[in-house]
Amino acid sequence: TGFVTLDTGFKNTGSTKSKITFLDGEKGILKYRGYAIEELAAKSSFLEVIYLIIYGDLPTHTQLEELQAEISKHTLIHEDMKKFFDGYPSRSHPMGQLGSLIFSLSTFYPECLKPNQTAEEQNLTIIKLLAKFPTIVSFVYKKSLGHPLIYPKNKYDYVTNFLWMTFGQRTEDYDVNPIVVNALNKLLILHADHEQNCSASTVRIVGSSDCNLYASVAAGIAALWGPLHGGANQAVIDMLELIKADGGDTEKWIAKAKDKNDPFRMMGFGHRVYKNFDPRAKIIKKACDDILENLGIDDPILEIAKKLEEAALTDQYFIDRKLYPNVDFYSGIIYRALGFPSEMFTVLFALGRLPGWIAQWKEMHENKEPIGRPRQVYVGETDREFVEIKDRK
Ligand code: CMC
């Protein structure tokens, strides 16, 4: 009925009005709530950016302390949730576990299901998710190693607490390395939101049916997992390892990426919106050099990544299609330097993107948006006659 505009992949369809993130793909500009990403990455902490993205303004000192204190009350997860960790096969992918566990929060904290939550109730649902998410991510990691779980220590700030649960020893305090804490803060800030990307749009569309926050975010985790979206950060490292094992012949892999008969794509390259340098990639590349140097790490795949980037940026195929390195190209090299295995990279992306998903879900409610329900252009059969099964050929 009526006229339907076809836009597969929503390349040119605005689905909402938003005040969260501004992105100019031609100029390579990214801002959260009006603040340039470069400045936030250099001067802010992840918790400050969480506050900014979800509540709209940078917090005062008191507001930041209050947020930290509220989060600290909810960092534990229900003990029964630990049974899930025992149930997953030991080598199952952390993203599969994370999605299921976040979905399951809706069963352990069913107050999230209440329709028309008051502002306070909604905020408590949000705080619980912010508080439990890092705990769940760390538990997933610890279980993958077969190590005992490390419980949160509320004397630590948000990012340090996550590092403690992930890398700490049970009986000792975490030996806080400011280089690692700063690097992780920076990476998480750079991932915090990115307007109507695949996972954020998923969270909004699931939430638009009045679905609770935890299930909506679990849907976002599923969308993020794919290698064309957040899964690209793991795929980049896998690709660089492959190229290294293959003798480091970057030209050969560039040729493969250009070959339309070869399904291989240069992972960590290209973007739906950026037709210029991804501003996040610029910051991450510089951070990557600094962090590896400061930690005294010499990772041979960094050299391969740089060679690949250089070759791609001067190649006509990449120039014509405006394909530049994106956020995922160098982030994995940093995560690896901080001690994370590659299967954890997309989970770390999810941890960073959490405030964005929450803010998108919250804004969708504040805007009183209708249920998301795109149309289609039907191109299938019409008017067929039913044939009894015995007569079908
Ligand atoms: N390697 C080789 N060719 C590419 C690549 C690539 N990475 N990306 C795009 N192209 C080509 C593509 O084949 C097409 O060529 P042609 O016009 O000759 O058919 C042209 O460039 C346009 O690509 P597209 O697939 O139509 O663009 P899109 O906007 O639909 O896809 C993308 C965007 C990010 C999915 C894609 O660039 C890609 O697959 N990149 C690799 C995966 C990746 O790094 N994803 C992370 C994205 S950024 C962070 C995030 O979202 O999580």
TrEMBL record:
One of its GO terms (molecular function) is citrate synthase activity. Keywords: Transferase, Tricarboxylic acid cycle. The keyword Transcription does not apply. It holds the Pfam family Citrate_synt. The active site is at H271, D328. GO terms for biological process: tricarboxylic acid cycle. It comes from the Bacteria. One of its GO terms (cellular component) is cytoplasm. InterPro entries: Citrate_synth-like_lrg_a-sub, Citrate_synth-like_sm_a-sub, Citrate_synthase, Citrate_synthase_AS, Citrate_synthase_bac-typ, Citrate_synthase_sf, Citrate_synthase_typ-I. Pathway: Carbohydrate metabolism; tricarboxylic acid cycle; isocitrate from oxaloacetate: step 1/2. The keyword Membrane does not apply. It catalyses: oxaloacetate + acetyl-CoA + H2O = citrate + CoA + H(+). Belongs to the citrate synthase family. NCBIfam families: cit_synth_I (TIGR01798), PRK05614.1 (NF004126). This is Citrate synthase. It comes from Pedobacter suwonensis.
